[in-house]
Amino acid sequence: MSEQTHVKLELDDIQRGVLSPRPSPYAATYILFRIDDRAHGRELMRRMSAMVTSAADTVSPLGQTWVSVALTRHGLSALGVPRESLETFAWEFRQGMAARANALGDIGESAPENWEAPLGSPDVHVVLVALAPDGARLEAALDRARPAYHALPGVTAIWRQDCHALPTETEPFGYRDGISHPAVEGSGFAGSNKLEEPLKAGEFVLGYPDELGGVQTLQPEVLGRNGTYAVFRKLHQRVAVFRRYLRDNATGPEDEDLLAAKIMGRWRSGAPLALSPLRDDPDLGADPYRNNSFLYQQDDPVGFTTPGGCHIRRGNPRDAAVAGAPRLHRMIRRGTAYGPPLPEGILEDDGADRGLMFAFIGAHLGRQFEFVQSEWMNDGVFFGAGDARDPIVGSGDGPGDFTIPRRPLRRCLRALPRFVVTRGGEYCFMPSLSALRWLGDLGD
To answer: Which cofactor does it need (predicted)?
Structure first.
């Protein structure tokens, strides 16, 4: 790994949605567009370059509110980006998420043929995301952005997903979320784990050195510099199935809470097992200065406290000695809940669609999102667990198993059903503000 150096990011040219943690509580909206007229699509890019919030704008009149815009490969083609430029993008991006379904484990119920239209289709060209601390400020942000795409008949809104913080301030399964956020060198945004050194800017933003000393670029340079890749996924959560599985495999309410914590790696309050192994600690879970500051290797290498196969340890092994240096696979993750909460104590599905819209930000689609999804979430070889999948979001054929290291005998949870189903998603590119202007000025 390269040594830490002082890097000055061009924050006024980087979209704020790349680097900023999401507010809590929050309200969010995803809107997808299709470009039917190239000239109108380019006009949209020109207008959005003036509407998108930059990472330098941390004192917005609307508070922790921002609007971001991203494009799919089909969207770049619709704008007339030259073929020689398109070929400099990551090959995973050029293929698109639907074409990568087998590698990602999106099979069976999660296969693209079962996705919610138009997700994964060539019709998705532009993704607009607005995020705010509450509904009123979200609507104000959308009011500011709406002139950018209104009165452009060659640009059509084809899908929208509204998201909101649940009254419990948890995700649909009942866990506090939005806890972990890496520190990025030169960003000015603090990380949530004070024991983690800031990561190189090039892990998240194109045009800067990454952890290996390389610099990701596109051609022409103005198109790539200060941009990044974004992965959007709509994940439906089977809350009633999850609750029933915990109840049916626990000896009582306290054991049910413990099983839930072992599966996630945190108690539902957000308190990590690493810091509170025996019982929940809501004060710790609610403390952003303490609830994510821990490591694994020195105190818990085998996973007796935080199982190696639990969700948070798979997604971020921290300092654990695993295949592939964990710092090379770090991403910025954000989840926003959609749909009504299932009332507490209800164990039968009510038919409502609920879950998370997930966004993953990184400069390396292959060794970040795809590696974590295929090697850490959908396999267990990296920590000696064979083909065991992530107990919450792991995907594949048939039920899975989950092992909890324990003395004198380990505890095994058998036949875990699929708790999360992929409803669709997109691989996108988030241009810089100057790249948005470049796209708007393209000629034929």
So the answer is: heme b
